[in-house]
Amino acid sequence: MIKQTPGRIYLADQHGFITTPQYSRCSVFSFADYADEQRPATGRLLAFNEETLAGGQRSSLPVWEDAYVVLLPLTGEIKYTSSGGQAAVVQVEEVEVRALPAGATLELANLFEEEPVSFLHIWLRAGSLAKASSAVFSYGFEQLENTLAEVVPAGTGTPVALPFSLSLGRFAGRHEATYRPAYPDSLFFCYVLAGAFEVEGRLLHAKDGLAVWETEEAELEALSNNALVVTLEVQA
């Protein structure tokens, strides 16, 4: 991989970190109590957070504009409640996408009293929503082996067609994958959950992120075993 397309690396040691007795949160972009003018939202992609909730704890988040919130558990399970009493429990090998209007409140709770749970919550601008809605997408870890598996497809799952898709992959060292965006003006964003990758000529370690624009395809190569990555294609 020798070519380089327009993009930006978000190094792990430059993310925003918030730690309280209830939770610890790592934010790639400015979010909630973490504000950095050098880390603004990228198009529709408003926030990308990796969070750990302590046993029996919860966190409450205001929804400041119409948004899709993607919840992806990494360990354990999360109870996910929004304004109006809509609640669900989402667990490992599931991804929940919830469409929430501005002014709503989102509460995330750890149902385990003793053990922490970790998860991603990703926020994307929705534009305009008539009402709240949700959808759950299931996958199996065997589907992720040495490939980028599309878990959340664009255009399905809620009354408003989703303007993004989400893929996951787990790779052995030196295995490669190519992602071809469905739309030429999409943002391609990837976040390394574990291991190391070379993505479009950039070296990424665990917790690093990369945004790439104006690309017909994005090439990934795992540089370690059990390397795990999540990718988003976000329409303009």
Number of strands: 21
Number of spatially distinct domains: 2
Q: Low-confidence segments, ≥5 residues, pLDDT <50? A: none
Please write the CATH class name of the largest domain. Answer: Mainly Beta
For this structure, what is the CATH homologous superfamily of the largest domain? Jelly Rolls
* Distance from first to last alpha carbon: 26 Å
Strand order of the largest sheet: 2-3-4-11-6-9-12
Explain the overall architecture.
The protein is an all-beta fold. The chain has 2 domains: 15-138, Sandwich (Jelly Rolls), CATH 2.60.120.10; 140-234, Sandwich (Jelly Rolls), CATH 2.60.120. It has no helices and 21 strands. A 7-stranded antiparallel sheet has the order 2-3-4-11-6-9-12, with no helix packed on it. A 6-stranded antiparallel sheet has the order 1-19-16-21-14-13, with no helix packed on it. The radius of gyration is 17 Å and the shape is globular.
Short summary:
This protein has 236 residues and is mostly beta strands. It has strands spanning 7-10, 16-19, 23-27, 45-53, 58-62, 67-73, 77-82, 86-91, 94-100, 105-110, 117-125, 133-138, 149-152, 164-171, 176-179, 187-194, 197-199, 202-204, 209-212, 218-222, 227-234.
